[in-house]
Write a structure and sequence with these properties.
The longest helix has 18 residues. Strands 1, 2, 3, 4, 5 and 6 form a six-stranded mixed sheet that branches. A four-stranded mixed sheet has the order 12-10-14-13, sandwiched between helices. The chain has a three-stranded antiparallel sheet with strand order 7-8-9, with no helix packed on it. It is of the alpha+beta class. Helix content is 19%, strand content 31%. A hairpin with a 2-residue loop joins strand 1 and strand 2. It starts with 7 loop residues before the first strand and ends with a helix. It has three domains: 114 residues, Nucleoside Triphosphate Pyrophosphohydrolase, CATH 3.90.79; 32 residues; 123 residues, Nucleoside Triphosphate Pyrophosphohydrolase (Alpha-Beta Complex).
């Protein structure tokens, strides 16, 4: 790829992607030409701009954050990033952070981090971009460096002896979507221990044969999703009522509404549907 011809920018407004109104769903992952992006100059466009390296050698990535208070021009629209990811991943999974979708998600992660790291976590002074050549923010008062936050979270498909998969409805889910049990890794805890603990806490089950499957960057706002599969070892389903409202064993021919195609959850469910788990 000729990096010199890449002259575009990703623009974000909170948790949304800002694009011209005539942008087709299939082109949401494309950078906006700088000349077109110039239409947003002023109070909105000047809130924050940045340039970062890509992870796949495809050239620098430019990003900008638009103020939530500044109205968009009439011929621009804001697309929720979660919706955009689902639309852009035709194969059902965005795994390695490479390619156009990976560039977009990396830009979004950094845009969110820059907003959240405006002030030093030690002394409260306003941060600035570090002059060390690293992707970091630095406090000019105490010198503290802050790097992009990445929070590891496990997500697990549980299969019983009948070949059924456990799917659960979280109170935060839209509509009646059922997905997999997930949770954040805690200090001093292995990933396998996190899998067992989250399943025990949320649905009251014990599991065995925990094995890693795949990972996915998921910047909502800063997660790294680590996908696992496990076998049911004992216990009856008891939703905790705090996060999990309902959980059941499902067969392949009797499924509820599933999570979006861009998620690692849907990818793991897909492996089970294909008989690979």
């Amino acid at each position: 790829m000729n990096n010199s011809v890449r002259q575009g920018v990703y623009i974000f407004r909170g948790n949304t992607l800002v694009v011209p109104s005539d942008t087709a769903d299939s082109r949401l992952q494309e950078e906006i030409p700088l000349q077109k992006a110039g239409e947003l100059r002023g109070a909105a466009f000047e809130s924050d701009r940045f340039e970062i390296d890509s992870v796949d050698g495809s050239g620098p990535i430019q990003g900008a954050s638009v103020s939530l208070k500044a109205p968009l021009p009439q011929d621009w629209k804001a697309v929720p990033m979660r919706h955009a990811v689902n639309l852009m991943t035709s194969d059902g999974f965005m795994a390695d952070g490479f390619g156009p979708v990976g560039r977009l998600l990396r830009a979004f992660h950094i845009a969110q981090w820059r907003k959240d790291s405006s002030f030093c976590g030690s002394c409260g002074s306003p941060n600035r971009d570090a002059d060390t050549g690293e992707l970091a923010r630095q406090c000019p008062a105490c010198g503290r460096l802050e790097f992009p936050r990445i929070s590891p979270a496990v997500i697990t498909i549980i299969i019983n002896d009948k070949g059924e998969a456990l799917l659960a409805h979280n109170k935060k889910f839209a509509n009646r979507v059922y997905s997999l049990i997930a949770g954040f890794n805690e200090a001093g805890e292995s990933l396998e221990a996190t899998v067992a603990r989250e399943i025990r806490e949320e649905v009251g089950l014990e599991v065995r044969d925990i094995r890693y499957m795949r990972s996915q960057p998921w910047p909502f706002p800063n997660s790294l999703m680590l996908g696992f599969a496990a076998r049911h070892a004992g216990g009856e389903i008891k939703p905790d009522g705090i996060e999990i409202e309902d959980a059941r064993w499902f067969t392949r021919d009797d499924l509820p509404e599933l999570p979006g195609r861009g998620s690692v959850a849907r990818s793991l469910i897909g492996l089970w549907l294909e008989g690979k788990l």
